[in-house]
Amino acid sequence: MKVIKFGGSSLANGTQLKKVLGIVQDDPERRIVVVSAPGKRFSEDTKVTDQLIQLATLVKNKASYKEVYEDIFSRYADIAAELELDGKILEEIESHFDKLLNTRFRTPELLEDAFKASGEDNNARLIAAYFRQSGIPARYLNPREAGIFVTSQPGNARILPESYNFLRHLHDTEEVLVIPGFFGYNENDEIITFSRGGSDITGAIVANGVQATLYENFTDVDAIYVANPNHVDEPQKIHHLTYTEMRELSYAGFSVFHDEALLPAFHAGIPVHVKNTNNPNGKGTKITRTRPKTANIISGIASSSGFVSIHISKYLLNREIGFIRKSAQIFEDLGLNLEHMPSGIDEITFILRKDQLTPGKQAALLYRLKNELRADDVHVEGDVCLVMIVGEGMVASVGTTAQATQALADAGVNLVMINQGASEISMMFGIVEKDEEKAVRAIYDSFYPK
Predict the structure, then answer these.
(1) pLDDT value at residue 259
(2) Which terminus of the chain is more exposed, N or C, with fewer CB under 10 A?
């Protein structure tokens, strides 16, 4: 059995859904289909999920929402008309919205999660109806019925371990099951969503639960690229990555997947294949536990901006027992999540995402670090970008650091920080944000010369 997931761009209109139908019909092993909400039909379009967030905000504020609601409903109506679907499916979607709009939720967060999830939920109903009309024995399957139960953290749900056992019963299905992605149910039978990109998470969870032979993730690109095409002209495609390489690249800015999206599939050792809905017979990118060796030292280059660094200097810091623990405790007390922690003998730097650091928290942080640690100096540097090079080939290669830093130097990019993981398959460079594109392009040109 294969589990397949389609992203929003693959489900944006009837034309795309006809391609999806062909992909499902092409392989009888594709028996579980996880779907997103309709995405953008063109570059200036708005995703249905974003419209639903707007609708939820209006409802929470008791403001007029008729126009936004009608825009959302029209997306489904347009798709149904293009596919010549029976009018009953629109009645079902309208009934779903009526119930949603008249439900009283315990908290504003639960309201927003329920509204966001309706994008996937209604799309799954519509797609199942389309499959049946086209002769496929298909059925919409609600995540509750499937067995997807999660923690009560709106917008950041975590799957409960017992869900994998509940999902096992789907393995022997003879029908094509269409499951909405992005959400599950908590112990109070309330809808809780995963983080954005959550349909990828649902797909990986289901693949793990049913012990699929393959998890296929269909998107709108032919493969994952070595570098962001917005930074590098026509970068090479990556046709095979390891789980670890993908995890590192996703964290550092690869937009194909959220960094936790594929974890359930990875844990079960299930191969993942990223493919293009518009070119389903293309090679795509395979992601597996191991991969064949290639001549390339690095597999990918990723970058992510929006970080700040907190520098602490103190003479003889390396001899002070508990200094790092005490420092980290101050960050924890203020609810700040740390990303990286490069250090020297008399100084240490903490890297964190700057959207956490309000002016009040920054002032409190600097005061406590300076006074409680008796530091010689504490200061903040903002607008930091992290550039990461990743590749299994780095482990057995000499001179990778020298080659990368020389490329950055030749491009006039100054290094704020350099850090390498213990596994030696990744290396991270801290630079100022304005040099992001220049840095990525310089490293790419050095390791992938034309």
Answers:
(1) 65
(2) C
